Amino acid sequence: MSNASQADGGTARSGSTSGAVRVAFAFWITLVGTTVPTPLYPLYEMEFGFSSLTVTVIYAVYALGVVVGLLIFGRLSDQIGRRPVILTALVLSVAADAVFLAAVDLAMLVVGRVLAGLSAALVIGAATAALAELIKDPRHPRRAATVAIFANLGGLATGTLLAGIVSDVAPEPLRLPWVIVLVLAVVGIIAMIGVPETVAQRSPLTLRPQRLRVPPNIRGDFVRSATTAGAGFAALGVLTAVSGLFLGMVLHEESHTLAALVVFLAFAGAAFGQLLTRVLSSRTALACACAGLIVAAGLLAFSMWMAVLVTLLIGSTITGVAAGVAVGDGITTITMKTAPEGQAEVVSTFFAILFAMLGVPAVGVGLLIQVTGLRAAAELFSAVVAVLALVVLISLVRGGPARAGARPGG
After folding, report:
1. Cys-Cys crosslink for 325: which of 38, 66, 211, 273, Cβ 3.0 to 4.6 Å?
2. Quick one: how far is CA 281 from the chain centroid?
3. Is 51 helix (H, G, I), strand (E, B) or coil?
4. Cα dihedral 44/47/53/55 (nearest 10)
5. Where do runs of H (alpha helix) occur along 39-75?
6. How far is CA 367 from the centre of its chain?
7. Rounded CA gap, 320 and 224, in Å?
8. Closest to 289 in 3D by CA, of 302, 311, 273, 266
9. 322 Cβ neighbours under 8 A, 6+ residues apart
10. Which domains does the chain have, with CATH numbers?
11. pTM score
């Protein structure tokens, strides 16, 4: 190879690396903005005078925005390119941050959450695909997926911790966190300007709801993975929506950083859980996820019953790990057993279920809190999560070794 060719190859690799870093940052900061409100909900509750039920509804609105965005815009980056979609996600993220920054009533919080949900829906698919196309290293074929996992779940974890710390140590706790993420999102927009487009052949623009489909050959595996991951996401949603209320009302802890830590541990655990699926067979991974959710549900119920912080933190972490393992197992099952031309529909179906489970049960718990109180509602919800996981675990045991060969370890 000539020196000129080597130089061109080095420049291309350098450009791809730079582009991947910028896309990962855009992915990360967009997801950061979606979890900033988590430790701030008790403050919003006092500021605007709404109930714990309203908090869960606000959270569910975000999940609804993600589901709608996935179904309508899931294929948009294939049609117009990755970069325009990521830039649109960043603009929506800036808009959501600005709405929260200027929020003076409940209606503005709802608008901000809808915008945040749409931004997340756009960036998840487009940035994940862009990273896969920019990071092509035959020696490390999973590097792109690893970067995507940590940009995604790392952003979710960072947003809540950032807001918790800033609201505890700085003035204007309902304003300053939004200033920080808004500025970083603007930096992300500027950084994306120089990123190369990775979609060479584009299809005509068609905005219609994406069909939800599960092929018959993976239906059993899909239902097991979706049920387990859905139960984990339901637990994550409830933790995100009401952990701050629990800490304040039951443990009388006013630290927003502590409330943020509960959610941070859950999302960090989810990132770790997805990586675990690389060293576990499919059957083992899902069985471990079910067992983890059962243990976590017990710990969370105990935390509510006895008002113990340590078991809440441990339970949150285990919940995240179990949910991450189940998600990783589901995605691997889909990609290994579904034809490439049908994978987008099946993945969209999978994530639509997960984000619906992220929001709807949170509202149910909010309603239950009005009737039974926070502790009883959380204990009942924990029991439901444990039962769902147990049902899947029993189906795995009855299924015998047939599913064990679904995926080699690693």
Report:
1. 273
2. 23
3. coil
4. -10
5. 41-48, 52-73
6. 24
7. 18
8. 273
9. 228, 232, 273, 288, 289, 290, 291, 292, 293, 296, 389
10. 16-195 (1.20.1250.20), 211-401 (1.20.1250.20)
11. 0.85
Instruction: Evaluate the CA torsion angle 327, 333, 336, 338 in order and state its sign.
Output: negative
In angstroms, rounded to a whole number, what is the distance separating the alpha carbons of residues 83 and 381?
Answer: 41
Token digits of residue 96 = 């959501």
Q: Is the dihedral of CA 55, 108, 97, 118 positive or negative?
A: positive
Q: Are 364 and 241 in contact (CB under 8 A)?
A: no
Return mean pLDDT, the chain.
86
Residue 249 burial by CB count (10 A; 0-12/13-18/19+): exposed, middle or buried? middle
Backbone angles phi, psi at 408, to 5 degrees: -65, 155
Q: How far apart are the first and last CA of the chain?
A: 35
Cα separation, 205 vs 311, whole angstroms = 50
Query: What is the chain's Cα-based Rg?
Result: 21
